[in-house]
Amino acid sequence: MSNKATLVQCPTCQTKIEWSEKHPNRPFCSERCKLIDLGEWASENRRIPGSNEMNDVFSEELINSVDY
């Protein structure tokens, strides 16, 4: 069995880090990169691709698609 460490790239700055307990912010290299990523999601600069039809929880499409 290999003891070779698994390396991953920080999604924010692309720095390679070891996936281990030494890096508690994984997959990010630091708290700073983790917060930058959170800010990107909060400001909606990053999104999960998909249809915008049912984004509004009060939309007619969503209400009509639910079986009670």
UniProtKB/TrEMBL annotation:
Classification via SUPFAM superfamilies: Glucocorticoid receptor-like (DNA-binding domain)
Superkingdom field: Bacteria
Single GO term (MF): zinc ion binding
Listed cofactors: Zn(2+)
Protein family membership: Belongs to the DNA gyrase inhibitor YacG family.
High-level lineage: Bacteria, Pseudomonadati, Pseudomonadota, Gammaproteobacteria, Cellvibrionales
Cofactor binding comment, as recorded: Binds 1 zinc ion.
Protein name: DNA gyrase inhibitor YacG
Organism field: Marinibactrum halimedae
Listed HAMAP family: DNA_gyrase_inhibitor_YacG
Function per UniProt: Inhibits all the catalytic activities of DNA gyrase by preventing its interaction with DNA. Acts by binding directly to the C-terminal domain of GyrB, which probably disrupts DNA binding by the gyrase.
InterPro entries: DNA_gyrase_inhibitor_YacG, Znf_NHR/GATA
Keywords from the UniProt entry: Metal-binding, Zinc
Subunit structure: Interacts with GyrB.
Keyword Transit peptide among UniProt keywords: no
Keyword Zinc: yes
A Gene Ontology BP annotation from the UniProt entry: regulation of DNA-templated transcription
One protein family per Pfam: YacG
Signal peptide start-end: none
Residues given in the record as Zn(2+) binding sites: 10, 13, 29, 33
